[in-house]
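Here is one chain, start to finish.
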Amino acid sequence: MKKQLVVIGVLLFLCLSILSGCSEQKKPNISFEGIPLQIEQGQTTQLRWNVSDATSVTIDNEIGTVNLTGNLTILPLETTTYILTAKSSSTTVTATVQIIVNESNERPNVSMVQTEFYIEIIGMTKSYVNQTKVVVTATNKASGENQTSALEPTIIDGNGFPKFLGIGDVITFSHLADFQVGDTWTIQLLYKGEIIGQCIFKNPRGPYNISLVRMLQNGSAVRIIAIINGPVDQTLCSIDARNASSGVNQTMAMGATITDGDKNPNSLMVGDQITFSNLGKFKKGDQWTIQLEYEGAIIGQCIFTKQGNIIIIPK
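Its structure:
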């Protein structure tokens, strides 16, 4: 009888141990590092990670969901802590990496010129300037009145790095139609309170009886970065893509389409894009003149070149 009780006790112990082991969930195991951990402003670094026993992995700072194992090239504006979160069915584990960004004390100098109805940045003595610390002012050249609020100048990304001021970015104005043709302003860029760039802007035409669109290549698409007298009815727009060498219309062959980027698919606005579904049919370096037409009138134009491998830095 005693032997039977001992055997039963052992079996019960084994069963409880097995059940306990089955119910215990493994915690995700994380390896997360930055290489290098310290950079100068304008340099890139890499985040590298390896996670096991997880059902999902995310990284903050707008990176989002990632694979269990991977690496990512980043271009941080300033010293930033990145948090990796790994989840299993019942457990969440995090790991952090801080990238230290040493900001240069060099004061940037920016060259700007007026091109039609916007101002384009054409030169800089410093590769990267934190755009969040840049302020635009507009002073009426005749009266000396500050008309920044009335014009609503806005820095629009044109170089693929929306958080950095750089060559190709533009300054646009929301309310030019409220002023007389020929009105002139002194436009200044201030960085940390110091003037880093200045140019004269003259209201180029009036009244604004047609819309004008500024477009730039952004990776494998063409992005709308400025519109005067908008928004534009997208249903009345068409795209014309002509081979820059032969002049042949290749709109259909490229599969050119306007895609929504401003959350309003019926109106063409800043942030919308022209994308191409058949770029694989063409060779690297092929070039086209992309024209945007509204009821048959050309309202915007830019050059698009097929690139090789396109590396996208996270925003």
